[in-house]
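Feature request, filed as a ticket because there's no other form

It would be nice if the structure record came with a short human-readable summary line next to the tokens. Right now we just get the raw output. Example of a typical job, pasted below so the devs can see what we mean:
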Amino acid sequence: MRILVLGSGAREHAIILALRAEAAPHELFAAPGNAGIGRDATLVDLDQNDPGAVTGFAHANAVDLVIIGPEAPLVAGVADRLRAQGIPVFGPGRAAAQLEGSKAFAKRVMEAAGVPTGRARRARTLDEVAAALDDLGAPHVVKADGLAAGKGVIVTNDRDAALAHAATYLTTGPVLVEEFLAGPEVSLFFVSDGDTVRPLSPAQDFKRLADGDAGPNTGGMGAYSPLPWLADRFGSEEAFVDQVTREVAEPVIRHLDAEGTPFIGLLYAGLILTDRGVKVIEFNARFGDPETQVVLPRLIDPLSQLLLAAASGTLEDEPRPRFTAETAVTVVLASEGYPAAPLTGRVLTGVDAASAVPGTHVAHAATATDGDALIATGGRVLSVVGIGADAADARDRAYRALAEIDLDGGQFRTDIAARAVTG
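Raw output as currently delivered:
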């Protein structure tokens, strides 16, 4: 197939690597891509958020499938234009993408669909925020209602800090003040064609910057999959996936279809396992980063076939995706100053040596070439992935590979998946 992948991060590189690994060869295009993606796909000078430009390229180059990686093109309506022109696209239209684009929209859908989630208050002024904070109590959870690249959330016992966070985002729209939910978090992806739902394998990511879940929220500093400890609570990982499919994914997909906004693409359910059961923290409308980097390497079935079936409305003909028993662990290397003010333009070395460590590979997130040099161009720079027989093996491989890479001021967590090893 001729496939166009929109995006420039490690998530998109992971998608391209999964497509490249399939037995059937594909001609892969990426826009805008990065230095690593450029090794595995043809980079296209194209505005990924311009529906007309993307559709024009797809027509001119006989593209069989467009895969939308990040959230911005979804909210810009790129999928709508492609779909209207008869081009198969994996990604929801603008209306359905509000599941991610508006936290308030997602809460309304969850309530209507009977999906378990925490209480929330929508606030447009600081006075309304203050009243909601007092009503819901501490710890305080404040979220930007719109897109914030994974950094629009604060969880704090400091009421003044919660108010300050709200004030930052109230300049661009309302915020949500939510009930704090305690428990381990799980990310679970679902592929949907607007009617049928197929689950992928659970993962757990690490959102805080520093070891021990300290420091500010980030877009994600690492992840691992599968989660063997789910069996302690649910009997098996499969039983957990079945429950969430039944109680969360299918009701949401059915409700959106009934509203006339079918969700065609990847439904990301951010879940928390509370003492009162599984609850949804949030939805995203695309593959998560860095979870994609540990879920897709374990996928046995062809990713292209699964996504094309979703884009074409034939997902019911596809069996439940299968995954290897191996564990994948990814550790994110970030620039100095991330997430507040990353310092960019610094040289990266040792990436090829890292990729040569057995059972590892590197997914590029924010890289470019400057002559013969590889440079960091953003906050999260690389995702180093280790795959092994269990969490200990995969974790050891990932950190051995990461030790080969040098980035002045680079930072990473040393405890990714550590508790999966210790139990």
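Something like this underneath would help us a lot:
The two ends are 43 Å apart (CA to CA).
The longest helix spans residues 237-258.
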